[in-house]
Amino acid sequence: MRQPLEVKELKDIYASIALRYDFQHGLITVGADQRGRKLLVDKLVSAGDKVLDCGSGTGATGLLAAKKVGPDGKVTLFDLSDAMLTVARQKVIEAGLEDKVHFITGDIVHLPFANDEFDVVLSTYSMCSLYDPRKGALELYRVTKPGGKIGVAHSTEPKNPIAKWLAARVEDWAWRFPRLSMGCRSVEVLSVLKIAGGKVLFSKKIGVPLWPFLVFIVEKPVP
Predict the structure, then answer these.
(1) Which domains does the chain have, with CATH numbers?
(2) Which end of the chain is more exposed for a tag (fewer CB within 10 A), N or C?
């Protein structure tokens, strides 16, 4: 597995691309990124929910959630990059949703929230660049209420051997340009959530053959 970038380097990268992130990520993924976000929000978020969007970036997922939680719901956008959250904040203001959303900067691997705090926890394309994605996934699980749900989308490897080989070559090239790769790599976190006790409700691969995403939903059981 490719070694993750250092936290400081990630912060620098995302600060430099914040204003173009939505366009760049959408172009590279041929729009599959937004399909994954919409899929998770449509399946998980309801009126009145308290939602955490982890690795929220420019707020593309969190904004969808904020539009669904209604007058009694709340959404927290949590990201490593202040620059990305600045873009997200402007989107929220333009959408007139300031009363539903607040913003926190920090590290997913060490979430500053209590156990069992959120009805829904989302993480779209943020596990891929973490220095410890499995620990990050367990943090998502920790802060989810019993009976609550976790929705994740992350990069995964193609199944086809030829596509897998080609994807590795493309990734080797992309990683020469950190602002292009954005520190993203294939990860695997679903197994650790199953071991923690999570029940898989949904799992699907989407995206283009060379760099697919795994989109899944896990429920945290009630004791």
Answers:
(1) 7-219 (3.40.50.150)
(2) C
Q: Residue 67 corresponds to which tokens in the numbers above?
A: 């539009």
pLDDT tens digits along 209-221: 888 999 999 999 9
**Beta strand pairing call for 199-206 and 144-155:** unpaired
Phi then psi dihedrals of residue 148, to 5 deg: -85, 175
pTM: 0.95
Instruction: Write out the two tokens for 101.
Output: 């959303």
Contacts of 94 (CB under 8 A, 6+ apart): none
Among 26-30, 77-81, 103-107, 108-112, which stretch is predicted with the lowest mean pLDDT?
Answer: 26-30
Strand, coil or helix: what is 65?
Answer: helix
Q: Are 150 and 217 in contact (CB under 8 A)?
A: yes
Structure token digits, residue 8: 């400081």
